[in-house]
Amino acid sequence: MKKRPARLSDVARAAGVSLATASRALAGSDLVLPDTRERVRNSAALLGYVPHGAARALASRRSRTIGAVLPTIDNPIFASATQALSRALANASYTLLLASHEYDPQAEVAVTRALIERGVDGLVFVGVDHAPQLFHELSRADVPCEPVWALDPGGFHHCVGFANREASARCAQHLLDLGHRRFAVLSGSLQHNDRARERVAGVRAALASRGIELPAERVVETPFSLGGGRGGLRALWQRLGRDGFTGLVCGNDLIALGALIECAAQGVSVPGALSVVGFDDIELSAEFSPALTTIHVPSADIGRFAAERLLSRLAGKRVPRMQEIPVELVVRGSTARAPRRL
Known about the structure:
This protein is 44% helix and 14% strand.
């Protein structure tokens, strides 16, 4: 006959403690003496006892799970932050549940509702541009959230991030200081993506401060990928010509690296004929030839701070509504002085 699983009562009996003490000991409560906690845990290990998560959640009103809802899981910058988020939560005996929505607001609402129904204690989102229904779901369920990668201009939501507009403006200012006057931008989709919109707006603002316009035909929306960078650059060349711009600002490093690959394939010198700037500073950016000038985003810090802030809030502690993460421009070999016009 199949042996029945060990129960909490079996653990309590083996350790010589009450059922309540065994429960508190396995939950790590400070109300139980360290020696007793150790004895209970040893008994649980010997018996092969596995705590019943649903029952424990009902008793504590905590599932000890946090949900992270990402636009996509295959972007290296999100992978780094998610790893740090998961590690920080695991150190506090929390489990991370992941979902993605591919920049579809309705899909985001659906996966968020599913995570809430699973009983997550808190949620992490990317950006502050979300369907109103999403925040309604969170408010109705009384689940705290931490948007990351952006700052809420209205101050309505807790968030961990940086000013995307100012960071992107630094990219354009760097090229302006090198003498570039003819610009183009490769951006991810601007719809349902506040970070992408803010980055394009930052380039426009920096150029406008020097009396230079950035018309719509000089901005191409393309997937956040190497292929997107290659295809986007070809589209710009078709619109503007090879000599139509000498400074290219990209919405992220994958797009920028794709542009570098396309330049190499077409025999266009970087940075001799075209200077390229990315955004994120993923590991590959420093290893390319030429190495990519980009904005360094400490993505692991974003994930770690999001975890720490959520855990503090769940413990009843107050945290600042906004936590700004410093970012910096890292100048490498993909940018140089603008070529002289004949």
